[in-house]
Amino acid sequence: MEKKKWDLVALASIPLIMTLGNSMLIPILPQIERALGISSFLVSMLITVYAIVAILLIPIAGYLSDRYGRKKIIIPSLIITVVGSGISAAAAWLMDGTGAYAVILGGRFLQGIGAAGAFPIVIPLVGDMFMDEEEVSKSLGIIETSNTFGKVVSPILGAFLGSFVWFVPFMAIPFFLCDRPAACHFFL
């Protein structure tokens, strides 16, 4: 039973991190706009592209997780999220202007792909892990609490990190996903 508790902690970290991945950027959008010299429409696309790609690919990810297994979809999805985040972070740090914007947008596109195969699959995976209806219900409550916590914390964390340098929030997601002992426990 102890392993299942750590598995649940790892699973609960996924919606938290996916929420942070998008919502941390909201308070720093004006900084991004100024730093890259782009319009408010273009800067808003950094949020929108992530969401649209995720929305469109969630049904495909769900089908693939039913067919091939939840972990076989979640793990590559998290890797895609890290790669997309890393691309966005590197472009924000090393490039400037519209060239940086295009690469950051491409990284955000990849993050959206990763998000589609991560958070939505957590819910059916909880159902697969626990047989007792009460355990499933309690576990889903923990997952949703984690998601809600991410929605509350992400603007604060994004503003805090952006107060150092505007692109630091782009670097946070690879750090959070690559430095998660609980997640490592679950995924290995």
Describe this structure in words.
- The chain has nine helices and no strands.
- The chain is mainly α and about 190 residues long.
- Helix 1 runs antiparallel to helix 8 (about 170-180) and helix 4 (about 70-95) runs antiparallel to helix 6.
The number of distinct β-strands equals 0
Q: How much helical structure, as a percent, in the residues?
A: over 70%
Please outline the major beta sheet.
Answer: none
Unreliable runs, pLDDT <50, ≥5 residues?
Answer: 181-188
Overall structural class, as computed from helix and strand content, comes to mainly alpha
How many alpha or pi helices?
A: 9
Supply Rg: 17 Å
User: How far is the N terminus from the C terminus?
Assistant: 17 Å
User: H/E order of the elements?
Assistant: HHHHHHHHH
Percentage of residues in DSSP E strands: under 5%
Shape: elongated
Overall pLDDT confidence: 88
